[in-house]
Amino acid sequence: GNSVTQMEGPVTLSEEAFLTINCTYTATGYPSLFWYVQYPGEGLQLLLKATKADDKGSNKGFEATYRKETTSFHLEKGSVQVSDSAVYFCALSDRKGGSEKLVFGKGTKLTVNP
Amino acid sequence: NAGVTQTPKFQVLKTGQSMTLQCAQDMNHEYMSWYRQDPGMGLRLIHYSVGAGITDQGEVPNGYNVSRSTTEDFPLRLLSAAPSQTSVYFCASSPRAGRNTEAFFGQGTRLTVV
Question: Taking CB atoms and an 8 Å limit, are A51 and B100 in contact across chains?
């Protein structure tokens, strides 16, 4: 079935550093791709998404581009802040049994130090 | 805005006890699901529902039951708790089970089985 592989971390950066979290996927067809973020003590919330090849999702300074040729959806941010410290999950939509489901990667914990 | 509400936030059970994790959403979403989050495993789908009266199994359904008598509520039942069910449980809802649809998550229930 469809699956997602992301760098496991943890990742520790200084404020204003450049962030990349790698995500690759295995899928039949053309799934939608997502990045979710989980702040400490909270549930997951959608950060950005892309629904077809070459689409770029963006939100709060984060970006990710749907690359069909490399089956990747890497998350980037040019200058991280302490408030970006969280766990980031890459996910894809997987159609099984007649309905779409989300398949998540294992998550990458990011810590940003002042 | 309440969104997705889970209760309780924390629970300790003894092996063999039963309990129900509650999940309610006030967004009139058709699709609801339960995940468990374990270290190094990401989120894994337990059960899901595409509408009132319809439920189906996800990736790790053993030891859990669900029902969906109303659009708003989707409780998760542990029939006989085992230490392997120690985890953080998240309920999520979406407007529909579509490939581009954002999932909204509750804040989670941290369950410990001793």
Answer: yes
Q: What is the pLDDT of residues B23-73, one digit of tens each?
A: 999 999 999 999 999 988 889 999 999 999 999 999 999 999 999 999 999
Write the single-letter amino acid at B66: V
Q: Please, what is the Cα angle at A46 between A45 and A50, to 5 degrees?
A: 165
3-class DSSP state of A98 = coil
State whether B98 and A95 contact (CB < 8 Å): no
Concatenated DSSP letters of B40-77: TTEEEEEEEEEETTEEEE-SS-TTEEE--SSSSB--EE
- Residue B32's nearest CA partner among B20, B22, B42, B19 is B22
CB contacts, 8 Å: B58 with chain A:
101
